[in-house]
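Q: What structure does this chain adopt?
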Amino acid sequence: MGFPPSELSKDKEWSGVRAARQHFYHDDESFDYPDGQKPALPGSPGFPDHPVGRRAMYGFTAVIIGVTGALGNAIVAANLPYIQGSLGLDLSEVAWLPAAYLVTNAITGCVLVKYRQEFGVRSFCMVFLTLQAVLITAHLIVSGLAGAILVRAASGISASALTTLGVFYMMQAFPAAHRLRAVCLGVGTPQLSLPLAWLVPKDFLALGNWNGLYLFELGLSLAALGIVSIVRLPPGVRSKAFEPLDALSFALYAVGFIMFGSAMGLGSYLWWTNVAWIGWFFAACLPCFALFFFIESRRKKPLIDVKWLSAGTFVRWALIAVLCRSVQSEQTIGILTMLRDFGLTNDDIRPLTGAILVGAVLGLVVAALVVAPSRLPFMVLGALVLVALATYLDTGSSISTRVPQLLVSQPLIAFAGTLFIGPVFIFGLGRVLADGGVRMTSFIALFNVTQSVGTLTGNAFTQTYLFHAQQYHLGAYAAQAARSDPDVAALLSTLAARYAPVIADPTMRSAEGVAALSQQVTQDARVAAYVDVFTAISLAASAGALALLAFIAVSLFKQYRSKLS
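A:
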């Protein structure tokens, strides 16, 4: 489909045959749009008026691209325990897969912006989608942990590219008056990928030692490549973007973040103080970042404008964005892991994950309907309040908690997850456009980092605090389980009696009873630790909501005073 030359020549807003010819040959640099239809920035497409049918096709393409860009990694994250067992990996090895995705997704955003500006949108999408398809095909032939990490790293890059493409396509689907809604939908659509991944049957992906997963991901990549080839974006404007010093700056930035992300992503698995390289990576990333900041702060055209990003508004924005992303770990690392500890699989919790998907879709729709520049802080505030409420509800969890008890709290968290992402992005984007758009690379870099760092730190905090809380409760429960206690002795006798039909030796029956009691105490301590984690996340979300409320109140007071004066 796209823009057939014959159809372009009929649109009065376009310059007739000349427009068609330029679009056909992708002559982006010399194309002149009428006022109101010009690209907002180099590297982005124009915004001509479209008929309803074409807008519908753009909207459909935006949804497909947005979901498929993140769905492959979401399926890996949702099935990580099963992939680990089938490939013979230990927990620390398989943890490299999501970490590699998050790291590359974070560091490539700024470079991708400049790539679009210099080489155009079409080259941007075709190159990175083809790269991902090639790497997945290679991994199907040569499997192993290294190949899996490489595919996840490539997926992180292509997901960053496809998220931007999804926003561009969604913006073509809406008139100019509803452009904020389009951005909100485009940024939020990839958030639906994880709930969708939980609904995919495990047996469908486990084909051929989990080669079915990579075949499915390859199909997604080829589908996205095909639809982008057919449904083309309008021509954009290109400009010279890269400078020689960008290579050094990006190398320092990438190396620093790779070390930080690897240490943060693996620290809670290998344990922070048990492996020397984790400490060395945290220490080594600091001089990389320091040298990067030193170089960028003295450049006339920096890759990332650190001075601009260090303003108070962006610092507060980044902290809120990291917090909003971090508290989402209550669902992914908290509740769903707890259910797995109870022996449930993805197939067993499908009603819950279906409810989570519904909550995420509703959050996305509500965000698009109510979004407005004056409402952005209140929407983020609402998301934090919902997370605080939902995690507080989960503090009532016990060893008997199952899907029915979670059908309110978890959809609320999913709703909050898609409610906050659009306003957070639009708030920063508005600052960029108000400043002329020259710092788009800086904003995209910061936005990607906040989301990736938020995920990494949220997961690391949850797992680390969970371990410490479990050890504390295990010690407390063990101290109460003295054999001299009559209640404990009676419980041990009851547990040992269960083995009487199969074990004749009383000593062995007693040992099995002790083992069963130990297992029960461990599980009780684990559940109590989850409750502590939910309490901590609820408090963190409440503190963030109060801080944001105070900031909103101060801002409104300043506006009121300025009106009076």
